[in-house]
Amino acid sequence: MGGKRMVAMLLAGGEGKRLGVLTKDLAKPAVHFGGKYRIIDFTLSNCAHSGIDTVGVLTQYQPLVLNGYLGIGSPWGLDRRDGGMAILPPYMKQKGGMWYKGTANAIYQNMGFIDRFDPEYVLVISGDHIYKMDYELMLQKHEERGADVTIACIEVDWKEASRFGIMHVDDEGWITDFEEKPKVPSSNLASMGIYIFSWSVLQKYLIQDEANRLSGNDFGKDVIPAMLQDNVKLNSYTFNGYWKDVGTLESLWEANMDLLSDEPALDLNDSSWRIYSVNPNRPAQFIAPGAVINDSLITEGSIVEGQVNRSVLFHGVDVGEGSLIQESVIMPNVRIGKDVKIYRTIIGEGTIIADGVTLGSPESKSVAVIGNDEYIATSQSLQEVE
Amino acid sequence: MNTNVLGVINLIHESDELESLTAGRCLATVPFGARYRLIDFTLSSMVNSGISKVAVFAHTKYRSLMDHLGSGKHWDLHHRQSGLFMLPPITDDVNEVQRGDLFHFYQHRDYFTRSSMDYVVITRSHMVCNIDFAPIIAQHKESRADITVICKEQSELMHGKARKVQVNADGRITAMQDHYGRMTGDLVSMEMYVMRKELLLELVETSLAQGQDHLVRHAIMSRLDVLNIQSYMYEGYLGVVNTVSSYYQNSMQLLNPGVWRNLFNEPGPIYTKVKDEPPARYTTGAQTSNSIIANGCIIEGTVENSILFRGVHVRKGAVVRNSIVMQNGDIGENSNVNCVILDKDVSIVEGRELRGAELSPFLAMKRKVI
């Protein structure tokens, strides 16, 4: 058998500093999202639906929860005889070892892994975005255009453009300029952090980048600009669907709320593009007499006796009688007592909210957060984020 | 750990009066409790009790059973040290398929002799409960009984059919009668038997030689005098599900939060084949009360006192009351259903009204469009 057509390398070592207490003990890709998922499920499900059967998951920051969650990759069809999922933390080599210095260095350190499959192409993706995308279509474009590199891009809000890698493309879609997180963006075409490289080209640049002591060993900051300078054929691939970077509490909350409209931009019920995850296997949810639920997502194992408006409840959440949950995200196994009021708050896994507590207020404009496994006995207008 | 116990789920001639619910499937795979199949309860109970090898004596209409159980991985039975064994009838003569369980046990006797386990727990699939077999096996060993039968004091069977038993002061079973017998008393057999494997094999051979075909009706019930058959009283929730009426009424029992918690979670969780359904989605204006809703449902209308399986869509203006809607049911706009059981993939078209009665719910066949 010849080599694999394409191997995916999934960057999952992000610390997710801006998610505050939610990433105290776990990496950003392992943060809960959308009622039953973790953020990384979206990327892995994309791989599954794009026919990718070899995925290296690069971990570094707080990997224990993530490792346990991923297992051998069965939920995403990645428990394969040839290829499948491999978890790739930094490791010792004969000449010593070191942490992943940057995104490019993480791939550089695992060139041996990629070479074992002798692929034509390498897909580099990250585990902190919410979107549904067929990488196979992107690869077809890459081949059709005879590109060396294809970068997926999307038009973002001008206000947000400075958070992303911003690019300029010519009339034919070739990338002419690329700037990582510019202070004053000159375009609103953002890189989605999804790259397809012809492996031989990437290999050359990874080695070159590693030799450059001044480099930050990052794709957006170093490798792509170096390629641009050398006139490597950098193609853009415009994506029109829903895509959300959930790097901040505000955007994580927004992305959860985006799932609630009657015609959500990202349809979780689409049977042709199921989002796979480790299923909690809990009994179906119990909606008690007197419960009122509007515009919400609720997951198995939950018991709702109170009122839930425009909120996302993960598995095993109890909402006691007389309680009101509004515009909030309640992560797994949270127990909410009686007569509790919660407004615009993200509550971490396993937290207990005692009877009668009020969190936030109906006027709250910004999103508050409570960490995992806390016990909240007194009302508070929570410290507001951002 | 009960590493010395072999689980046997006996589906041979399981009494079944579930009408169209078992037209295309065996009783063991009748959907129950919004996301489970009947067999999940006994299978999960075995696994949670530390039984790691389980044989399923499939009998008829077992395609759905094979599909559901697969490799056994959802019950953690797919490991080197564990196993789920599907044992369908072995016979050249189709008439022999209809013979009793003793015949089929005999045909598969190699399975028993090859196993190193000393004890067997034999159950059926229609006794819906969450039970820990460990203390029962312990009692069995301690009491030096030949056979231990798990029993339950239950006066209200909600039209389910179960054998009656009588016990003496020492807990020994003195009488046992099929459900149509005249025996009085509130004690029923849960059709769960613990015995040494050697005894089972002996009963199989001697009974068959005497022209007997059925384990309980013949081999056990005719030996109440010669064998020391003890009872074990089970205290938890039990639903005997083998008629349409008992199916409906036991399903409605799940709306009691105490039953919900006990049956699905205690002493261990009930496992089933998982599906990648998203969380249930409730839109603006949805009204839901006293109901069990599985993942993947979309609720735009009104749902009361009902059980919705995975992927059911209740459209705008639709009203579902006192009903059970199985997987992927589609309740059309402004339709109204009350006291119905809708099998998988049933669609109710816009504006239609459908009404059963609590004592005889309307039952719609799989894939029907109404």
UniProtKB/TrEMBL annotation, chain A:
The keyword Disulfide bond does not apply. Pathway: Glycan biosynthesis; glycogen biosynthesis. It comes from the Bacteria. Its EC number is 2.7.7.27. SUPFAM superfamilies: Nucleotide-diphospho-sugar transferases, Trimeric LpxA-like enzymes. Residues 8-260 form the Nucleotidyl transferase domain. CDD domains: ADP_Glucose_PP (cd02508), LbH_G1P_AT_C (cd04651). The record marks Q60, W99 as: Could play a key role in the communication between the regulatory and the substrate sites. Keywords: ATP-binding, Carbohydrate metabolism, Glycogen biosynthesis, Glycogen metabolism, Nucleotide-binding, Nucleotidyltransferase, Transferase. Alpha-D-glucose 1-phosphate binds at Y100, G165, E180, K181, S191. InterPro entries: ADP-Glc_PPase, ADP_Glu_pyroP_CS, GlgC_bac, GlmU/GlgC-like_hexapep, NTP_transferase_dom, Nucleotide-diphossugar_trans, Trimer_LpxA-like_sf. Residues 291-362 form the Glucose-1-phosphate adenylyltransferase/Bifunctional protein GlmU-like C-terminal hexapeptide domain. GO terms for molecular function: glucose-1-phosphate adenylyltransferase activity. Involved in the biosynthesis of ADP-glucose, a building block required for the elongation reactions to produce glycogen. Catalyzes the reaction between ATP and alpha-D-glucose 1-phosphate (G1P) to produce pyrophosphate and ADP-Glc. Homotetramer. Belongs to the bacterial/plant glucose-1-phosphate adenylyltransferase family. This is Glucose-1-phosphate adenylyltransferase. The gene is glgC_2.
UniProtKB/TrEMBL annotation, chain B:
The keyword Cell membrane does not apply. It holds the Pfam family Hexapep_GlmU. InterPro entries: ADP-Glc_PPase, GlgDAde_trans, GlmU/GlgC-like_hexapep, NTP_transferase_dom, Nucleotide-diphossugar_trans, Trimer_LpxA-like_sf. Keywords: Glycogen biosynthesis. Residues 285-352 form the Glucose-1-phosphate adenylyltransferase/Bifunctional protein GlmU-like C-terminal hexapeptide domain. Residues 19-210 form the Nucleotidyl transferase domain. It comes from the Bacteria. The keyword Transferase does not apply. Belongs to the bacterial/plant glucose-1-phosphate adenylyltransferase family. NCBIfam families: glgD. This is Glycogen biosynthesis protein GlgD.
